[in-house]
Every structure is written in C-alpha cells, then in structure tokens.
Amino acid sequence: MATSLVTREAPAFSMDAYDAATGRYTTVSSEDYAGHWTAICFYPGDFTFV
User: Fold this and answer.
1) 50 burial level (CB within 10 Å; 0-12, 13-18, 19+)
2) Beta strand pairing call for 14-19 and 24-29
C-alpha cells in the first residue's frame, strides 16, 4: 500500500494554467509557491474516460 505524500516536498514543475480572473492562460511553477503551504489538484479535462 502506498504511503501518504502529505508534508513531503513537491517535485519541481512548470505548466500552463487557466487564470479565470483574466480569462487567459499563464505559466505557473513550483517556484511561485516556494515557502508556502499549498494544495495542488490535477484532473483530466472534461468528458475524458479515465
């Protein structure tokens, strides 16, 4: 059984994300959240079969 990943440091990442406030895509990275507690959720696009 897998162990919990809570309190572990997230691996470095950089990706495009949709900013609903501006209506545009922007690039976010782990550097943007360095030193802060953060919850990051990933999910597949709508209507995809997983």
Assistant:
1) exposed
2) antiparallel
Q: Are 30 and 12 in contact (CB under 8 A)?
A: yes
Q: How does pLDDT run across 1-50, given as a tens digit for each residue?
A: 567 777 778 789 898 988 889 999 999 998 998 888 887 776 666 666 65
Q: Which two tokens stand for residue 22?
A: 């501006």
The predicted model scores a pTM of 0.54
DSSP state letters, 2-50: PPP-TTSPPPP-EEEEEETTTTEEEEEEGGGGTTS-------PPTT---
